[in-house]
Amino acid sequence: MTGIAGGLVLLLVAGITVFAVYGPRTTRLTDAAVLVEELEADGRMNPFVSVFTAEGGETVVSVSEYVEDSGYLDSADMDLEGVALDAFRLAWEELPGSFDIVSVTVFSDFGISVETMGRDELQEEFGPRPSGLDSAPVEHDGSEPTENTPGECADDYCDKPSLTIGSPQTLELIRRTCTDLEEGLAGLTSLPTPSSNQQETLSGDQVWLSSVGFRFGDPEEPDWVNVTHIGDSAEFLEISCGRGDAAPSEDIQTRMFTRTQYENAA
Which of 79, 165, 228, 235 is deepest in the core (most CB within 10 A)? Predict the structure, then answer.
């Protein structure tokens, strides 16, 4: 195609900005919407997908899902490992972009399964990846972050945090809260790309303006930070964090900050 520099095509289709780039491109958080849709179509309940960069630079896709009872397992003739294997298959066959590792965690009332597979293992198990999937066009709404809302969203999955969450003040408050992660946070001058990011979310009677998760470190046991922008003067920003090698109920650090504390953070 002549007249297009650098092999980049910008299209506007039905209000969605589509960046078509020739050659493989890294899986982005907005791509998670595709995998969530496929998991839900397969009968999964409230699957959670995140995308992050591990300490070695690998792109990691993390899938978590909860099996409420044995009904799904019985109907699908699967155990927890079988449910995880099916999630690996859907990620390999449906998720756009190029990734290095998929980690799947399946919870139930009677157990937990945590499995990790790399690209070579995925190809050996499921065969070649569908042609063109690693270089599929990026799709998002083209939006830019505002103070309260994130930017570049596909459904509820957004690649960019709001200006409030992405600010130097929030990074400083994370450092004050997450003392157990001091070593991992030491070299950061800005927050990394979110591993999970949701727009306005209703939780009970409370509306969150934006809720963002960050993961980093070991692909199988990543350290994590969650930041929720609530927006009230007294409850403006909530930060929770923990080490990946700690039990889910242990060693979680959580603090709530007022608007004044946020504004005064250096």
Answer: 165
CA–CA dist 110, 67 (Å, integer): 9
Residue 247: which residues within 8 A CB-CB, separation 6 or more?
Answer: none
Q: Strand locations in the chain, DSSP E?
A: 8-13, 16-21, 48-53, 59-67, 101-108, 111-118, 138-140, 151-154, 157-160, 196-198, 201-203, 206-208, 210-216, 223-229, 237-242, 253-257
Amino acid letter, 64 = S
Reference 145, options 225, 226, 229; nearest CA is 229
Task: Show Cβ contacts of residue 204 under 8 Å, excluding neighbours closer than 6 positions.
Answer: none
Nearest-angstrom CA–CA distance, 35 and 38: 5
What mean pLDDT is predicted for residues 141-154?
87
Helix (H, G, I), strand (E, B) or coil at 213: strand
8-state DSSP, 185:
H
Q: pTM (2 decimals)?
A: 0.78
CA distances from 84 to 52, 60, 99, 211 (A): 19, 16, 18, 26
Model confidence at 160: pLDDT above 60: yes
For residue 251, the tally of other CB atoms under 10 A from its CB is 12
- A 10 A CB-CB count for 225 gives 25
Predicted local distance difference test score (pLDDT) of residue 204: 52
